[in-house]
Amino acid sequence: MELVNRVTTKRTIKWHDEPINHEQVKKTVLRFKKLLDKNGTDGLNIINEELELPQLKKFKVSSVEIKKSENLVSDELKKALMVAASNIKVFHEEQKKSLISLPLEITKGNFLWREFKPIYSVGLYVPGGTAPLVSSLLMQLIPATLAGCKKIIICSPPDKLGKIAPEILWLAGQYGVKSIYKVGGAQAILAMASGSTIIPKVNKIFGPGNVYVNEAKKLISNEVSIDLPAGPSEVLILTNDVSKADLVAADILSQLEHGFDSRAYVISSKLNVLKKVRSEFNKQIKTLPRQQILEKSSKNTILIKSKSFNDSIDLINDCAPEHLILLDDDYPTFLSKVVNAGSVFCGKFSPCSFGDYASGSNHILPTNGKAKSCSGLGLIDFGKHITIQTSDKDGFKALAPTVKTLAETETLQAHSQAVSIREKYLNESSCQRSVSEIRKTNETQVFINLNLDGSGKHNIRTGINYLDHLLEQFSTHGKFDLSLSCLGDLHIDEHHSIEDVAITLGEAINKALKDRVGLKRFSHNETLVMDEVKSSVTIDLSTRRILEFQCSPLREKVGDFPSEMFKHFFLSLINSASMTCHIVTSGENSHHLLEATFKAFGRALKEAVKIESSISTSTKGIL
Asked: For residue 522, what is the DSSP state?
C-alpha cells in the first residue's frame, strides 16, 4: 500500500498499469484461438490439459444436471437470488421506457422513429476461477431476457470435478436457459466467437473476466460484438471523515478480494484520515480468508492526499474508476462535478457490495479508465435501434425538390432519379383515402396502413389469432385494404393489444376521412345473417362519439380472444374514429356472434364512407 502526498510531490498517478506479462497474454490467447480453429471441440481439451484442468467428455450441461441443481441450492440462497433478481429487473425494465421512440413528424407528411430490436443470439460469460460469480449471471441474464434475446448461451468454468456451480445452473434454469457449457477463460470467449466447437457462435459476447478473458474479447471484436472492457475490479473512495476509516478499509477489501490484479484508491484532503485507513486496513485484512489474493492485490492500493476540492475532482475524473464511493454526507457537492465513473455509491449506507449484488444496478462496468467513454452494462446493450421513416404524398411533394437539389450538387444523379421516378404516383393516388397510423405505448406497438378505397386486401398480425380473423372479415366485407401489425405484452394479458389495435384503427379511419365533406355519412341498416346469428349495424359518420351495443351472451373465450373485450373493442374504435354506431347481434354460437358483427360493421362502414358530393351532408354544414 502506497501513500502519495500531492502537496509535497508533483508525481503523476499511474492509475492503470499494463500487466507485466501482457505480450505473453496476447501470445497465449492467439495460440488458443489457432488451436480451436484447427481442432474444434477437441481443442478445448488440449487447452484443458495444458492448463491442468479436468478432461471432459461432454462440455454441454445436461438437463439432468440442471434438474439436480434444484436440490443442491439452499432455500436461503434461492430467496436471496430472487430478491436480487427482482431489484435488477425493476431497474432494467425502467430502461425499456427510454428505448421507445414515438413517430416524429419532422416536416408535414414526413415521419421518423426508431425501433429497438433485440440481438438474436448472445453469449454470457460467468467467471468462476476463484469463485462462482452467480451475481454476474444475474447482471447479464436479466437484461438479456428483458430485451427479448431469443438464443442465450452461457459459458462458465467447471470445478476440479468437471461441474459448474449448482447455483449458476439453478438460476439459468429459472429463466429457461438450457445451452450451458463447461468452458471458462479465454477459450470460452474464442469458442463463442468462432462456432468452430460444440459451442454455437453468437452475435455478441458479454461478461467480465481476467486479463486472458479481456484479451480474447479484444482479439475477436472484429468478428463478433463485445459488451465493454470489463477487466480487473477497481474502486476509488473519497472521504475526509476519520471516523469512517473502518468503512473505507472494508470497501477497499471488498474489491481487492476479487483477484490479484484488483486495484483500490483512497483520496482525502486530510493526511490523518489516510493514516487511519491504512491502520484499519491492516487490522481487517488479517480476518479475511482469501489471504493469497489479498496479499498481492493490496500492493495495488494507493492512498492519495489531495491538495483541494478541485484537485480531488480532477483525480476522480482522471482515474475514471469502475466503482466510485463518495462516503461523506457532503457527497452532493462532489457528485455534480463527477463526469467519469462506472457506478457511484453515495453516503455511508451505500456500500459497493449493494451494487455488486442486489440494489438493482448492473455491476458489469468499464475498467482501466474506459469509463471516460463507456457506460456500464444496460438493457440497451442487448439490442440495437433501427431507424424507420415513411412519407405520405404531401411529405414527398415538400421534400423532393430539396433532395434532388442536394443530390445533383453532389453529382449523384441516380439519387435524384430515385426521387423523380416516384412523381408519377402523385396524381395516381390522389383519389385514394390511404393513411398510415402508428401507436406506441409501454405495452404495445401498433402499425396500420389503411386504404378506404381499396379492394379488401389484408395482411394482419396482432399476435391474437382470432382477432386477426375478425379484422380480415372486416377488411374483406368493407373492401378496405388493411395492413396491420401489433407487438404487445401478450405474455401478461391480451387487453392492451386488443384495445390499442382498436384505438389505432379508429384513428386511421378518422385520419383517412379528413374533413368528411361529401360523404354519404349515413349507412343504411346493414344486416348480416350467419346460420342462427343475425347482426345489424348502423353508422353515422358525424363526429359524435356514441356506441349502442347489444349482443347475446358469449362464452368466456372464442379461440384466443377474450369475449369481455368484444364490446370494449368497438367502444375504443368508435371513440377514436369519432362516429356514432348502433350494433345489435343475437344468436347462440359465440364464434358466429363475433364474426357476423365484424362483417356487418365492415359492410356498414363501406356504405357510410362513400363520397356522393362535394358538400357537407350535415344541415349545419359541418360534421
From this structure: B
